[in-house]
Amino acid sequence: MLFVLLGLQAPQVADAVDVDSLAVPAVVVALAVIAIRMAWATVLGCGFGDSLRGRIAVGWAGMRGAISLAAALAVPTEVDERPEILLITFGVILVTLLGQGLTLAPLLRRLALPVANRWAPDEAMVRLEAAQAALDRLEELEDEGAAGEPLRRLRELYSQRFALCVAVLGGGELPEDGRRELREYGAMRQELIAVERASLLALRNDGKVRPEIVRKVERDLDLDEARIRR
């Protein structure tokens, strides 16, 4: 709504001031706003993160928008410099939204911020106990003569879960080979789910399967996909 109001006033503002003469001041104000926020976030470190990289990311993400525009629109119409204030404010918003907004994603990739733990410590403890119980049961099944290949695959799965829980509780990270295997497993499983879903939809479009069966199978695929994303 605020941007709509600014758009309605833009013709009057453009007629009241020399737009070209205010372009440089608008850029200067925008750069000053960015510099002040970066200094506040990084140099002073006022609760914007525990690491310098995190504070840089928070500082660079401080795009101007609705609040700045609302403050500019609140200037009384009796103020002679109101058109200049509106135009410079719009310039600051434009510079920060385009400049910082378009470069934020590359900056975050360059900073390589650490990924937060997947689970809280209490949740990791519960998952650890569950994984350990499953591993203990696998040992019992092996003693009972269960087939070797299913046991091997299940033991690898629960061992990875166990290691991930230990890493979360220890404040560390899963070893690189373990994280890579989890990523590869997740990517392959999602690809296979997509293939299954495409096949299911093709059968539905050809009229070879009843709608209720499609819904059941889609529900199972959605559940499998949701498990992978956790």
Keywords:
230 residues, mainly alpha, 3 domains, 9 helices, 79% helix
User: Which sequence of SSEs, written as H and E, runs from N to C?
Assistant: HHHHHHHHH
Tell me the structural class: mainly alpha
The 3D shape can be described as elongated
The overall number of domains is 3
Number of strand segments: 0
Report the C-alpha radius of gyration, rounded: 28 Å
Mean pLDDT: 79
The biggest beta sheet is recorded as: none
- Termini Cα gap: 37 Å
SS element count, helices: 9
Give unreliable regions as ranges. none
Strand content: under 5%
User: Which range best describes the helical content: under 10%, 10-25%, 25-40%, 40-55%, 55-70% or over 70%?
Assistant: over 70%
Task: Describe, in plain words, how this protein is organized in 3D.
With 230 residues, this protein is mainly alpha-helical. It has 3 domains: 2-111, no CATH class; 121-173; 175-230. 79% of the residues lie in helices and 0% in strands. The protein has 9 helices and no strands. The chain has helices spanning 2-16, 19-43, 52-60, 66-73, 82-111, 121-143, 148-169, 176-205, 211-229. The longest helix has 30 residues, at 82-111. The two termini are 37 Å apart. The mean pLDDT is 79.
In short:
The protein has about 230 residues and is mainly α.
